[in-house]
């Protein structure tokens, strides 16, 4: 988010090093956080849904041009403002691009004041977009959370409902879920739903920080506090003041640090190493765990008093095994994102049989593993959709197995065809009437597979 706690970001894309350096200098002096790249392909590495800023790009560049870059960016988030830099001969091209979604354009040569004025207007627009997303989500509207946490299963509907209740509160939250299930996405969404959304969101990976540095990283230190402390350092907790701190994989925190963290959680204050001064912390604490922390307490690896302080509210993120009905829809969304990320012009078509195979197999790595599969498929490397050997999908009655197979095949076909019925019943060899009856009998919600903005098929009953 942009706002009081975070400066807007401007991504400058230009293959001319002198012009790029000049733009970076002017924007830096104007108070923006500036990232710059020479190639449009590199720019996509910096862009994601919710990107907190503006893209300023030249039109004519080697490789991918600015117009193609704009299309790829808008495939990720259509409300990211893109300002095009154009030469005199490309003005008509830029005007056409504005009709196709460009936020504005500026003709070379331009003054620094012209550029910063355009960027300021675009940054204000982006700030309002992001603020409105937060407000809509906090008011109970589903579009923002449903884009982040895809799924129509009961487990996901319940998770989003609880998040809308918990997000605006200032209570600490413990998020529990298997590896790759989306705990970090849930944590970020809770921050964006809260009154602290404009403040910083600081992630601390408890498993990744070396044990001899973790205390300094968390709490900070004064100059000379230990050998090698050549200057004072602000800790991660202080960086998060006014916002949210995420303690990722909290079970990996060494036991000696758990006691010190308990004091920080209780007192909302921290003292840097080498100092007795107390720094008050106005922040929210969110923690994630891959394993049940009560089991870690019983094994003596985690402090019970710390657990009781952290789990004021606990959210369980369901694994894919508990929401198999979401897999086909989720794979199609991840595939579209992968195509945009890897600069692939058209999203590859997915045969319904392949989607059905993806639904049938196990995903121990959950959404992260499914995302990797979508990346491989987008790159033409194929994907193993066969059910894992020995996977337990047994159902007692033959009729139940047949019904489960029918539902899986129909849902896969609906996902592959964006919810349009004609290609579904034609590909499955069914009549329109038979498909309607099966959708109703099997409790399939066709609307979950209809592409955004696509009108419902005329004459359809489900």
Top keywords for this entry?
single chain; 462 residues; alpha/beta; Rossmann fold; disordered C terminus
Could you walk me through the main structural features you see in this protein, from its secondary elements to its overall organization?
- This protein is an alpha/beta fold and 462 residues long.
- The chain has helices at residues 17-29, 40-43, 66-76, 91-99, 112-138, 143-148, 154-166, 183-193, 214-219, 236-239, 255-267, 293-298, 304-310, 327-341, 352-360, 366-378, 398-416, 421-428, 432-441; strands at residues 9-13, 33-37, 53-58, 82-86, 104-107, 173-176, 201-205, 220-221, 233-234, 244-248, 269-270, 279-280, 284-289, 313-316.
- It has 3 domains: 9-136, Response regulator (Rossmann fold); 143-318, 3-Layer(aba) Sandwich (Rossmann fold); 321-449, no CATH class.
- It is built from 19 helices and 14 strands.
- A 5-stranded parallel β-sheet has the order 2-1-3-4-5, sandwiched between helices.
- The chain is flat.
């Amino acid at each position: 988010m942009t706002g009081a706690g975070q400066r807007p970001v401007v991504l400058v894309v230009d293959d001319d090093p002198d012009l790029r350096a000049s733009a970076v200098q002017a924007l830096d002096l104007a108070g923006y956080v500036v990232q710059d790249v020479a190639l449009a392909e590199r720019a996509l590495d910096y862009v994601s849904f919710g990107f907190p800023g503006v893209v300023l790009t030249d039109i004519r560049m080697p490789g991918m041009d600015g117009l193609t870059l704009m299309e790829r960016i808008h495939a990720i988030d259509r409300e990211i403002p893109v300002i095009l830099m154009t030469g005199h001969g490309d003005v008509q091209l830029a005007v056409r691009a504005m009709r196709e979604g460009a936020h504005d354009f500026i003709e070379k040569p331009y003054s620094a004041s012209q550029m910063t004025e355009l960027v300021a207007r675009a940054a204000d627009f982006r700030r309002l977009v992001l603020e409105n997303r937060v407000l809509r989500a906090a008011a109970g509207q589903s579009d923002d959370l449903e884009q982040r946490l895809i799924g129509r299963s009961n487990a996901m509907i319940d998770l989003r409902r609880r998040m809308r209740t918990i997000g605006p509160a200032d209570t600490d939250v413990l998020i529990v879920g298997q590896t790759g299930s989306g705990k970090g996405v849930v944590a970020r969404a809770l921050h964006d739903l809260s009154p602290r959304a404009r403040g910083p969101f600081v992630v601390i990976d408890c498993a990744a920080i070396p044990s001899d540095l973790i205390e300094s990283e968390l709490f900070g230190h004064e100059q000379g506090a230990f050998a090698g402390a050549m200057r004072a350092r602000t800790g991660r907790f202080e960086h998060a003041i006014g916002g949210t701190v995420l303690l990722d994989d909290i079970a990996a925190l060494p036991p000696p640090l758990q006691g010190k963290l308990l004091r920080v959680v209780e007192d909302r204050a921290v003292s840097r190493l080498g100092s007795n001064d107390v720094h008050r912390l106005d922040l929210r604490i969110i923690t994630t765990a891959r394993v049940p922390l009560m089991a870690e307490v019983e094994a003596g690896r985690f402090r019970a008093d710390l657990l009781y302080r952290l789990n004021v509210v606990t959210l369980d993120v369901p694994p894919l095994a508990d929401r198999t009905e979401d897999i086909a829809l989720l794979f199609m969304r991840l595939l579209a994102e992968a195509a945009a990320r890897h600069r692939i012009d058209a999203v590859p078509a997915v045969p319904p049989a392949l989607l059905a195979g993806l639904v049938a197999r196990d995903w121990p790595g959950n959404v992260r593993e499914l995302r990797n599969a979508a990346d491989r498929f987008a790159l033409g490397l194929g994907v193993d959709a066969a059910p894992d050997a020995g996977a337990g999908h047994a159902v007692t009655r033959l009729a139940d197995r047949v019904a489960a197979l029918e539902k899986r095949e129909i849902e896969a076909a609906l996902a592959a065809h964006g919810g349009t019925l004609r290609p579904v019943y034609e590909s499955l060899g069914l009549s329109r009437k038979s498909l309607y009856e099966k959708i109703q009998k099997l409790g399939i919600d066709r609307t979950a597979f209809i592409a955004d903005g696509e009108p419902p098929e005329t004459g359809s009953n489900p």
